[in-house]
Structure formats: C-alpha cells, structure tokens
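Subgroup meeting minutes
Present: P.N., E.W., G.H.
Scribe: E.W.

1. P.N. recapped why we're keeping a running log of single-chain structure predictions: easier to compare across weeks, and new members can see raw inputs and outputs side by side.
2. G.H. added today's entry (206 aa).
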Amino acid sequence: MLVEVAGRPILEHILDFIPQEIGEIVVVVSPRFKPLLFERFGKEFGGRKIHYVIQQSPTGTAHALSLCRDVLGEEKFLLLPGDDFQSKAALEKLIKNELAILLATHKDPRSFGVAQVDEENRILLGIEEKPEKPKSNLISTSVMVLDSRIFKYGSKKRENGEHYLPDQVTGLAKEYPVRYEITDFWKPVSYPEDVTALEKIFKYEK
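Output recorded in log:
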C-alpha cells in the first residue's frame, strides 16, 4: 500500500481512482501497518472520511470483507484491492450497476479467478479459481459492487487457512443478477518489475 509509484504511495493512487459518488472509505489493514497509514492519510482523504479496520492475520479476502460488515451497513459499496491500478472510467461505469464485477481479458487465465458468464454476455454465473481448463479468458480483477447480501454466503477454508471472496460471489450470482463490465486498464502490483512497468506508463503519459 505504501510502496511508491511515480512518487506517491500505491494507496494514494487507488484513493484517487474512486468515483466521486463514493462518500466514505474503509481500509482493511494489519496492526503492523495501521500507524504508518494513519500517519500518511489521517482520518480523511479528499474530503472523504476513512475508517480503518484491523485484520489481525492474512486469512483471505472473504474474512477481510466480513470485518467491515458493521461499518458498511446495508448500502451498496465498491470493493477494491489495495495493490492494483484501475481505470477510473471503468470504475465509474461499474458503480452504475446494483451488483457487478469488473473483469479483464487475459491470454492465460489459469492463474486467476476465471469468470463464467451467460450466453448473452451480460450476467456473471460464477468464478472458478485457477482452473486447469478455463471456460473463458475473462478473469476477475476483484473489483466489485456489492451490498449486504454478500454476507449471506459462506466461503470454504483453503489449505492455506484462507477464505476467498469468489466463493461468496458465486453464491450471490446464483440467486441475484450480477452484471459485469470489462476494464480497459488493470495493473496488479505484486513484484518490483510491476512498479517499474507502471513508472514507465506514468512517464509516457507525462
């Protein structure tokens, strides 16, 4: 979150991506990093109040979201990973939906959560984690528009002890129409070379 790209922490870029319609921000953070984030961002960013939610150990995306349940209430919310660069235009389009997920195309989707969609290419049917034989080249960016209904669904515990959100989203999609948008830009930041690639993009855009 605090790794810098183009002279600014990744989280600061992410907060800038968030559409203006979003009024408050919830950040899930480990106890180790909360003081650093609070020192950098404080209680608000760009006029939006920031809530910090502590996740004591990295037990998966489903667990992280469950910790935010009381803060989120019943309203619709936008879920974003804390280490990915997104298209602001795609996010603005996504939040117009009641329930939705942002997908990207990938030439080799086997290392990702692969989306299964209906024949009319409008509705998500489910997400299959890292399949050997993907049913599509559409992968989840983990950016979603959800509401409190997501908490009705459970997620199975993986061998590493973590619980993943795609399980819940698949359950949700079986009962409610979850639409999707395909992004024009998505850059996860997982390795040093990802930072280098983004630095080049920012330099080119200037």
